[in-house]
Amino acid sequence: MALMDAVVILCAALASAHVKGTTYKFDDSSGLGRRFDGVGGISGGGATSKLLVNYPEKQRKEILDYLFKPNFGASLQILKVEIGGDVQSTDGTEASHMHNSWEENYQRGYEWWLMVEAKKRNPNIKLYGLPWGFPGWIGEGTRNPYHNPEVTADYIVCWIKGAKAHYNLTIDYVGIWNERPYNITYIKTLRRVLDARGLTQVRIAAPDAPHDDLDIAVHINQDPELAAAIYSVGCHYPGTKSTEEALKTGKPLWASEDYSTFNDEVGGGCWARILNKNYVVGHFTATISWNLIASYYSPLPFYRDGLMTAVEPWSGNYIVETPIWMTAHTTQFTDIGWSYLRHGAGVGILEGGGSYVALVSPDGKDLTIVIETMSHDHSKCIRPALPPYHVVPQVITIKLGGSFGNIPQMEQWYSKLGFSGQPTTMFQARQPVQFKNGTASLTLGVDEVYTLTTLTRGHKGQYPAPPPSKPFPLPYADDFEGYALHQEPYNLAQQTGSYEIVRGDTSHGQVVRQMVLQTPVHWCEADTINKSLNIIGNSRWSDIYVEVEAAIGTVNNTEGVFVAARVQNGGCQTQYAKGVFFFIFPKTQRYIVAYDLARTQVLTKGSLPSQLSAWNKLSLLVKGSQVEGAVNGVSVFTITAPKATVNGFVAIGTDTYGLADFDNLRITTAADGAALLGQSRVKDTLYFTPERH
């Protein structure tokens, strides 16, 4: 009996492991579904493209092609960027175009450059701006950007008009405040101000918040003025699910931020499932990945959550990840303005697990079908990977009807994600699928994606392998002379505060200046520490030497500046940053050495030498548990710091928000630093020279 039971169980398992013969109809006779609004990526939230700007020109061009060039790689159809607000917004801060109410500047930040490059490659790409936070003056001391809706609306409109005036960029969509409470009065005000300034083409997406904030749909359904102001209802990480109220609005529903997953094979599978099931389950017609490209230091938050990875501008190395090709399965064979077929007539769930969607060109002549059989759950698609989703091998029959009944064949593109040692195949052109009387069979495995299309434009773009990976170079020095004014220094990654190149005095030429004067209307708690922190280098550095020259002005200035080593905890945890921080306060001629940015754990403190000047050189050497610091070549302390963090970044910063200048940053090994400490700078120092573009 035991043997017979085993045979029965085995036969049942084999029968259930391969679903056969299910027919799925693809037919436009009953009409079409919703309009397709595109697939995109987010640069921002924040500073996620920071290291990309500094790549050598050859590799930078290649990376941008993989992201934006039509029929090459991801072929993205939407680029969403942060409207910089001088706030920490996940992996760093992005500069505002208006640090203060009395000035505007459109040379700050790198989102302008990125939008221009995207438009060069795809003139039809849609541009979408969203603030994560705002400069402090916007809230007028309230920490509330809606305190004066007219002021905030004007600030956003300045950014939109600046994009056009300075870069000939037309912004298509604008949001409210990323993942923070929406304000109906502000939404209406923003619409009125946009219209009054001749920006009627700019459409508002709201609320750009998690699924629970889809309750805005209730207000849209009850308030005609609000309904007229909002173009699309944007939800973050919806888990593919919308709401009845949201559907009743009749508005386009967008997953306006989604994915946020480590970009390995599991992440690629997650993304493939999201791209289909966001429409199959939730009727979302646009899906935008956070983030566009993982181009920020490890181990800042959500490291490698982009569609691809580019974190070594000094080497030129980058990695084309699986989500690039998962995206291509949809974007290379559709355009914004196509329409989905209806559920049950080209959109649905596969019997053996997985999903399928079909999209039709506006003229009705072309059809694209995307099928996925991913076995990893997609419900939120955020690390860590969720338990497997039940999918089995299956044979399906595709039945074309309506306008498509006479299609003789469809081009076929195939991908398979390799798990448990299996090989990975990405975006492979296969023999076309032949149809007889509108019917064809397709054998589907697990963790696969198929695109069938009448279009013949697909292409798997490829460049020669990039240069090999290398660690951050030492020794390193930057005198900030090779940058354009108002640019951010390339390798310094500001975590709080905003730093830009300005002209210094005659003795220093160009310098980098911390510009934020007051606590901004923050997105996360990092900015509440009221200190600026700018990191650089390698999080694994332990024994290291760093020096920098710093000057504090007399107007709108901070009281102190610092240099630091072994710095850990950036992003939205910056207020808890640990390391060895060497602060000096020139006005009161004192110094403090602390284990943390907040200075709650003071190691030592004392008086500085009397020979201070407008510019002072801070030097810090850490080796094992020994820490030594000097000012202007004169040692001011040598201590043992047994509780210091083991490794981390080098950093510079200010004790409070306020103006301060930095110049002649130098980083080297502890051995070389020990020889230099207290000595005058050698004349033949080689400084980092940024590539101008």
Characteristic terms for this protein:
36 strands
Counting DSSP H or I runs of 4 or more residues, the number of helices is 12
From the N-terminal CA to the C-terminal CA, the straight-line distance is: 78 Å
What structural class is derived from the secondary structure elements? alpha+beta
Mean pLDDT: 93
Radius of gyration: 28 Å
Beta-strand percent range: 25-35%
List low-confidence stretches.
1-17, 680-685
Number of strands: 36
Helix content: 10-25%
Q: What coarse outline follows from CA principal-axis ratios?
A: globular
Let me know the largest β-sheet: 8 strands, antiparallel
Explain briefly what this protein structure is.
The protein is an alpha+beta fold and 693 residues long.
Give a description of the structure.
The protein is an alpha+beta fold. It is about 20% helix and about 30% strand. The strands form six sheets. Strands 2, 13, 14, 15, 16, 18, 19 and 21 form an eight-stranded antiparallel beta sheet that branches. Strand 11 (about 310) and strand 12 (about 315-320) form a beta hairpin. Helix 2 packs across helix 3 (about 110-120) and helix 10 packs parallel to helix 11 (about 320-330). The radius of gyration is 28 Å and the shape is globular. The termini are far apart. The model is unreliable at about 1-15 and about 680-685 (pLDDT under 50).
